[in-house]
Fold this protein.
Amino acid sequence: MPGRTPRSRPSGRSSKSTSAIRARAEAAIAAVDRELQNVHRRWHAWEPGPLETVNRAFAGGRRIELPPGMLEPILRAKRLESASEGLFNPAIGRLLALWGFHASQLPSGPPPSQDAIADLLAQSPSMTDIQIENGTIGSRNPAVQMDFGAFIKGVAVERALAILEAHGLEHAIVNAGGDVGVIGSAGGAPWRVGIRHPDGAGGRILAELEAGDGEFVFTSGNYLRYREHEGIRHGHIIDPRSGYPADRVVSVTVIAEHGGTADAGATALAVAGEAEWPRIAARLGIDKVLRVDGQGRVSMTTAMRERVRLMAPQAAVSERSLPPD
């Protein structure tokens, strides 16, 4: 969603009746629900729908008419892939499917073979392979299979907030499985967002963050969805460079001004190495980042340090500066 225009809000209490306010809120929630259902139908990675139709066309080397509502997200995803230096790459759907992550019930058997992974990597699928012209879409690389699982939730939260605003709601929080977007304030104060501890024990909270008007808080971690074989967990965040699950960190949380950027950025920074993640964050325009590695060590940017209160003891906490623009 392009940059938001600051809103001017009337002061004082509303004169509308409680029933009118309730009716407006219910209408807004119903509209949000319809939009979220549309997003699910249009962008689901493996169920029949517009995205699956486009991916089949790519595999068959065909150009088809671009389905309605898909242009802007695809163009945004292209830009984010470039800005992240390919660490966010929604063209690797075949690789995710190979690992078994295109299923509601994750497999429990051994991981895919090295040869199968290497074969897909050799085909180098990228969003740069996608060509859009005259209302049609195609791919010059049949190995491209789009999967927007690391991006479209952010777009959906953007749209949900836009709908709430269009219905006159000035203060709201949308929570999509722990990833949130906010407008306005919480009674005149910043919204407070709890970040789950990666170990998941007893619902522990790692940190509490402050989010302001028009901000999005997204977390990416391989502890959220994984397959397991012989006691080894294989997380769903795949490094597009190696073809294997990213294992450098267990959790990355970001605050950004756009939901799609927050979603994709959290994923890219979960893939990035310790030396490169500040550069990638700067390229994405994300200055608020919190990362937790496998030893429980926390690193965060200076801008994030001003927003966060750690709730659980950590092995170590360090602060990182981003490179200049």
Remarks:
- The chain has nine helices and 15 strands.
- The longest strand covers residues 249-256.
- The two ends are 23 Å apart (CA to CA).
- The mean pLDDT is 92.
